[in-house]
Amino acid sequence: MNSYNPYNLCMIVVFSPLIGSLISGLFGSSFLYNNPIISRSAASFVSIFCILISFLSAIFLMCNVIHHKCSYDITLYTWSTVDTLSLDIGFLIDFLSSVMILVVTSVSLMVHIYTIGYMSDDSGYQRFFSYLSLFTFAMLMLVMSNNMLQLFFGWEAVGLVSYLLIGFWYTKESAVTANMKAFIVNRVGDFGFILGIGLLVVSTGSISYQDILSNLDSIQEQHVPGGGVLQKLDLIPIACLCLFIGAMGKSAQVPLHAWLPDSMEGPTPISALIHAATMVTAGIFMVVRFSGLFELSSFVLSFIIIVGSIGALFLGILGIIQTDIKRVIAYSTLSQLGYMTVALGVSAYSVAIFHLVTHAFFKALLFLGAGSVIIGTHHNQDIRIMGGIYKYMPITWITFLLATLSLVGFPFFSGFYSKELIIDSVKYSTMFGSGFAYFSVLTGVFVTSLYSFRLYFLVFHGKERFRERSDFNGNPHDPGYSILLPLVFLAVPSVLLGLLVVDNFVFGKFFDSIITVMPMHDTFYHVSKDWSGWLHFAQHSFYSVPFLLVISGAFVSWYCYIINDKITNTIKSKFLFIVNILDNKFYFDVIYSVIAKTCFRFGSFLWKYCDQILIDKILVNGSANVVNFMSRISQNFQSGFIYHYVVSMIIGIISMVTIFVFIF
Questions:
Q1: CA nearest neighbour of 144 among 310, 12, 308
Q2: Which residue has the higher pLDDT, 473 or 195?
């Protein structure tokens, strides 16, 4: 037992970005008054200072969690009580959440600093800083939550702010379309997510993580509430499947992945924050947090393996044909998220988080490096009209190369350790789908190397194709220090983080009380048994198949795009059918369009024929018309003369007597 209480520290970590967002958003714009109260530089300073405070507090929080080797479940207050269900707001601070807090705040800090230079000429400068800080607050609420209600709040908040950031340039039609697509696709996943939450709350009577994970034996005996077929279904597989559908939307897994590449329409800094280090990793974090629940359903784990395998290989293949520098990196993100998902499916949860961490830094570096290239080449994003800029942008070139080597898994780089451990974990798995997963992650190594070095060679080496542009004058150049400083900072963990922390992070005892793995799923045991340190692991990899695939991918890229660049046109002409499939992104957008149009037409049919004709004209207005018609007929019998009424009564009596005599 220790006397350390992280309550105040948690409040500083999570609410500092919110304060920065409110100040820069309310006082840095004309929201409150006709003119901004604080200047552009003041707004950026406040936002960065608040994020810096949060980052430093996150470091201190991490150090204390490691030092005291325990977790803290803190309740701030009770928001509401419904019968016996208490709706609390609080924090769960353990090694998992402290790692996520540190990743979110560190990358966010670099993105904030980077934004000073990248968005310097934008009229929405203060608004952008406000959105960035608000997004950081939402993500921190998500990873620090200790209950399902707060998790869902953070889950939806990051979705909302990502909508605002992707569509930041709201006068640009493609940006508006992209943010609507991201919002709607994520709503599909969130529908499954809230169903999963509802099933768990109903089965336990609590929204607390601790209550849910400590009552797994009781949940395992329950069935889905409802009548008919539902009563025969076990609750845990359905709840896990619903939760993972939510993760598929947020972490952009097939088939809910199509929103992420289109979201590159937003400013580059958000790509580094949202699509590398934060929002897209929320699904991975959630599955790890509920590992004890997912371990009870082998069916769902197999489903996770297959979904991740498809993403790791086939979404990576799409990166080979992209010509937009940001979209190449976006499809790389989809592929790497597939690797993390596969790791979840084979119960290598600590490795999945490790790859999440290393990926956050080298992918943020790639996105920010791409932004530096875009600025240096006068806002050009087409890699076909770049080339040979390494001599003009040396810092961007070196940092981009380091991030590329980490992404492809070159030995001793951070990405190498996390990716190789995923491949090894899959190799030992006996779960259904693990064979396909091993093929996918192994082939994905070659694909990753191919599109990564294709991007690198086309941008930094070869002919200076940018001079073919009529509107380009002078030479490309490295931007200012506000852009270069984050590149240098992110390059350090992209290179060194893996070898420095892999021994303790993956093979230490930090996740023992957080992650639950069933003995039948514990394939990582075989990996840990063969582990003999980061140095031997890297040295031995030079003789492995993945390293050969990395070198092969780099060689093919070098030959096709530097030595003999005409061969690519020949390959395209011979495999035109496959190229068309890839150009159409496996026709997912076409399928979405057909589904959307079908739903629209069906809805129009229901509105036109069921609502307007059947309900309004026939049922509602029709019944009124019938009453009106009958009343007009009946008024003819109301003459006001007594003898008319007497005749009517006689006719009625005779009719009744006749019926009684002849029928009864």
A1: 12
A2: 195
